[in-house]
Amino acid sequence: xxxxxxxxxxxxxxxxxANPDSTGMTLRDYFAAKAMQGIFNTAIEWxxxxxSQDEESLKLFKDIAQDSYAMADAMIKARxx
Length: 81
What we know:
Blueprint lengths: L26 H17 L11 H25 L2
């Protein structure tokens, strides 16, 4: 297991995958996506408007992404115990 990324989230063999050189998303990415989903489901009131995002929105998205990866890192660290 890669201690920084957790390794592949959905490991496959070359027998059942079209591109054996690709391992797909990492477990860290998967955990971060789930954390981000939880944040949006519980704490954010966001309604897409099909308009350009303003600076405040872009900062919010960046903060949420950083927090999501921080949670993912904590989950990977907890797996080592």
